[in-house]
Design brief:
Strand order of the largest sheet: 6-7-8-3-9-10
Strand content: 25-35%
Order of helices and strands: EEEHEEHEHHHEHEHEEHEHEEHEHH
Distance between the termini: 36 Å
Low-confidence stretches: none
Helix content: 25-40%
Largest sheet: 6 strands, mixed
Mean pLDDT: 88
Shape: globular
């Protein structure tokens, strides 16, 4: 399989507030991302994720090392790199769109800026509006769209050039739970159905765990681990617990679990499309597997399943960084 993105000792410095100190934003990063891969850059704010994406987009020039996108050097072949990428920055509420234009006119405008021939642009816009389920609302003003719909228009804009490599910088930031779920579904479709390579930054560990083929964990500009979500979670097993899938009130579920003597703590609560997942640390896994469904049923919650859960990436990250995630 061919390489879509490759970096060798990639490094970027910025001046501090005093103008004298030097801050290392990206610190000798070495990555090799395959064509068609959904690749995550995971880390807290300040880890260097956005700077790395901006280097790959040719918006920031590195100080040391090299980066290649689709085989082209981001400095020497910047124009060719731009022809191969679609870039999306997670902007709350779709601020990168013109709200007093319709969805269709927004896409026409951006197609014009990208020098896409009108006949090709027209066909491509129609196809994108249909793919993102926006055809019925294509001629409505964007200002009347929900946040999730605005994100769909921005994703369509990112795909106008039909670039093979998509660089996504926190595309779900600022979205509510429904909008975030919908955006994740669309990103998965872009990778699987349209065979796009996606490089995706997030500080949301749940997103990285569910979406990515491989993940690079970043901290203070460095890549400290690269592997599949499963292999990363196997780095440490001391955070094993149980995972409960159910339908009903999350608040009620948490109250029930906190009242069970064998539950030590609630580790995470994450809504899915039609159910919720709660991970909990327990004293006795076998007891938890048998008793939790009974407790939920007694209180009117429908349990879909209870299973032993491997560590989440949050625990892995804390293990790898020595707890830096919480203070970063």
């Amino acid at each position: 399989m061919n390489t879509a993105v490759e970096t060798v000792n990639l490094t970027k410095y910025f001046k501090g507030d005093s103008g004298k100190e030097r801050i290392v934003a990206v610190n000798h990063v070495n990555l090799s991302i395959r064509e068609g891969e959904f690749f995550g850059l995971l880390g807290p704010n300040g880890a260097g994720k956005t700077t790395l994406i901006k280097i790959l987009c040719t918006l920031v020039i590195p100080d040391e090392g090299t980066a290649k996108v689709a085989g082209f050097d981001v400095v020497k072949d910047a124009e060719k790199v731009r022809e191969c990428i679609g870039w999306l920055h997670g902007e709350t509420g779709g601020r990168a769109l013109y709200w007093r234009l319709s969805a269709r006119d927004n896409l026409r405008f951006y197609a014009y800026l990208q020098n896409i021939p009108p006949d090709i642009a027209r066909k491509r816009i129609d196809a994108l509006l249909e793919f993102f389920e926006l055809s019925k609302d294509a001629d409505r003003l964007v200002k009347d769209f929900s946040t999730g719909m605005k994100m769909r228009v921005m994703l369509a804009r990112t795909l106008l050039s039909n670039a093979p490599i998509l660089l996504m910088d926190e595309p779900t930031v600022g979205l509510d739970a429904t909008g975030a779920i919908e955006t994740r579904r669309l990103l998965q479709a872009l990778c699987k159905e349209l065979r796009k390579t996606i490089v995706f930054t997030t500080h949301n560990i749940f997103e990285a765990e569910r979406l990515c083929d491989r993940i690079a964990v970043m901290s203070k500009g460095k890549v400290i681990a690269v592997d599949t979500p499963l292999r990363l979670s196997e780095i440490t097993r001391k955070y094993r617990g149980v995972e409960v899938r159910f339908r009903g009130s999350s608040e009620e579920a948490v109250r029930i679990l906190e009242g069970l003597e064998f539950v030590k703590r609630i580790m995470s609560v994450q809504p899915e499309e039609d159910y919720t997942v709660i991970r909990a640390e327990v004293k006795d896994e076998e007891q938890a597997l048998s008793e939790i469904p009974k407790a939920f049923g007694t209180n009117g919650l429908r349990t879909i399943g209870v299973q032993i859960a491997l560590p989440s990436l949050e625990e892995v990250f804390l293990s790898l960084t020595g707890g830096e995630h919480e203070s970063a």
